[in-house]
Amino acid sequence: MNETTFSIIRRQSGAQTSSATVAFDGDQVVVDGTIWGSNGCKTADLTDISYDTSADELSLSVGTTEMPDAGDMCPQAIMEINYRATVTFENGLPGTVSVSHDSGDGLNPVTTATP
Questions:
Q1: Which end of the chain has a smaller Cβ tally under 10 Å, C or N?
Q2: pLDDT tens, per residue, the chain with 115 residues
Q3: For residues 62 and 85, is the Cβ–Cβ distance under 8 A?
């Protein structure tokens, strides 16, 4: 893997949703997911990404964090945070991709996919 991008697509009040889909597109793995934040000052962040060459597995972990400009007044609402992570591979796609989320309650597996 030689390039990774991570972006927030949308933040809105909602439910405790934790989901992700994995797409294989040419030399890229694209993960579109939704993680939940415990209040209106939360956003998502790519907390860990690793590629295990012996297992041919890409692992992504997404967690929640305080927004840098959050301030002291955080709305008491569950936030649904939609994100996209794109990982580009130079020498072929991984055999397995696993995605985990941590909304403050520990790392939980969300999905595993193969091309």
A1: C
A2: 689 999 999 999 999 999 999 999 999 999 999 999 999 999 999 999 999 999 999 999 999 999 888 777 888 999 999 999 999 998 899 999 999 999 988 999 999 999 8
A3: yes
CB-based contact 115:93 (threshold 8 Å): yes
**Which tokens hold the place of 31?**
């993960």
Give the 3-state secondary structure of residue 110.
Answer: strand
Spatial distance between the Cα atoms of 80 and 98, rounded to a whole number of angstroms? 21
Taking CA atoms, 9 is separated from 44, 59, 92, in Å, by: 10, 21, 27
Q: Which domain holds residue 46?
A: 3-105
Quote the number of domains for the chain.
1
